[in-house]
Amino acid sequence: MEHVFFEDLKDKICVITGGGGVLGSTIARGLAAAGVVTVILDINEQAASGLSGEITNETGVRSYGYKADVLDKASLEKVQEKILAEAGEVDMLINGAGGNSPGATTRLEQITEDDLNRLDEGFFGLQLEGFSKVFDLNFTGTLLPTLVFTRGMVTRQKGVVLNVSSMNSYRPLTKIPAYSAAKASINNFTQWLAVHLAKVGVRVNAIAPGFFLTSQNRFLLVDEKTGKLTPRGEKIIASTPMGVFGDPDDLNGTVLYLLSDLSRFITGVCVPVDGGYSAYGGV
Ligand code: NAD
Predict the structure, then answer these.
(1) What is the pLDDT of residues 149-163, one digit of tens each?
(2) What's the total number of domains in the chain?
(3) Closest ligand 1 atom to the C-alpha of 47?
């Protein structure tokens, strides 16, 4: 990454929720390489503090790691005080905490005539608890950190929010209705907030990653026993014109661009980073 393109990012302070996860940690490393002071928030304290320690040691750029729950406003407000005292004013927020869960996933892709005696393996087997858990983590888990961390940006009339949506926000993937609906709501919220804050210097955008093999989706894409792609994994590769899963590092160029002044006239967009998946009609 050529730092010179993102010179304005140097020494800015960026909070990354879910920063201890696969994509969040790669993004944090990419930001540190551009001189950004990273604040890693994660419900997994060890992941957050371990990563911030590594980043500081490896790059010499300040990095902080704290435990915080994106579903608990009081926990976010408490950590905000620590951030202000130890790191400084927050310039940028990446809402990275999110994910799917087996509890909100149907076994059947579609219900056919042959499935009428096992309807609970499809839509009818979904429990509100599983559905709400995934919806809350992705939507409320973006809303609350945004409420807490953008107030200071608005007061200073400068700041950037970057939400993490998904390819399935445009067209839902089979089996994961809660995750798809929640990510669609992220795109809508990104546009709403972008308009709301446009006159006070705060930009709000999103990225929609395509398919990256990580802990949250491995159980759907790779057979645990054989290590081979599941039929679903094969379908995804066949639907991705570039023919591979993404490498988390592939997100970093877009993330840096959307955070930096290079995109200063861009707000309210969701950029697909997906190897062409969203452009391909399948034929
Ligand atoms: P991940 O599971 O590796 O990381 C998610 C992180 O969020 C974890 O470190 C977890 O501890 C943390 N977290 C969970 N609940 C939390 C809470 N209540 N408060 C604070 N932190 C919490 O997942 P990932 O693949 O790195 O995904 C990161 C984001 O990218 C998610 O929003 C996900 O939906 C999105 N995404 C991922 C893919 C993919 O292919 N992996 C594709 C599209 C979008």
Answers:
(1) 999 999 999 999 999
(2) 1
(3) 9
